[in-house]
Amino acid sequence: MQKKKITKLFFAWQDEKEQVWLEQMAAHGWVLDEVGLIRYTFCKQEPQHIRYRLDYQEIKGNDLLEYLSLFTDAGWEYKGRMNNWFYFAAKDPETGEIYTDTQSKIEKYKRVLRTLLIACFPVTYSLFSFSRLSEGAESSALNGVMWVFQCMIFLIAVALVLNTIRLWVKIQKMEKKI
Fold first, then answer.
1. What mean pLDDT is predicted for residues 11-15?
2. CA–CA gap between residue 19 and residue 62 (Å, rounded)
3. How far apart are alpha carbons 60 and 70 in whole angstroms?
């Protein structure tokens, strides 16, 4: 069976865009097989109409089995997990939507937002720690390495902040519609 790996970046607030992209891939005969951090593996099959849905949940252990069986019973096939994002697929057009109301979608995005805000703390701490360490570095090589790490952490911090802002804006727009 022919496989294709694609590296593609979607941000936390772009889950609907990611779902559409996965559906377009299936329409071209590339069905999602595995999902990872910005990496997707597809299997070549006949072009087909598959609906993909993503859900964000912080679930472990026995709750995970119950959660997955709930989706299976509703007609969704579990395709994989990337951190707390769960990927589901349904070939039957009559399969019900995962989220049927705006309030439950808002709650999903609030869970993602909470995770992003928590992630900001260690990144911010690391940014300041590396800046203090680089001040005390006597070697120019060590200073260079510290500068590279500072730049990487700074870029991660910027991405976290931008994702947090975009997600917050999305939540605000949805809440205004209620």
1. 91
2. 27
3. 15
Beta bridge partners of 82: 85
pTM above 0.70, yes or no: yes
- Quote the Cα angle for 70-75-79, to 5°: 80
What range defines the domain where residue 151 resides? 102-177
In a domain, 173, yes or no: yes
How far apart CA 86 and CA 79 sit, in angstroms, is 8
Q: What is the pLDDT of residues 56-85, one digit of tens each?
A: 999 988 899 999 999 999 999 999 999 999
> Taking the alpha carbons of 166, 21, 68, 98 in that order, is the dihedral positive or negative?
positive
Question: How many structural domains are present in the chain?
Answer: 2
Tokens of 51: 């609906």
> Quick one: tokens of 8?
């593609």
**Cβ atoms of residues 127 and 155 within 8 Å:** no
Residue 53: closest CA among 79, 31, 92? 79
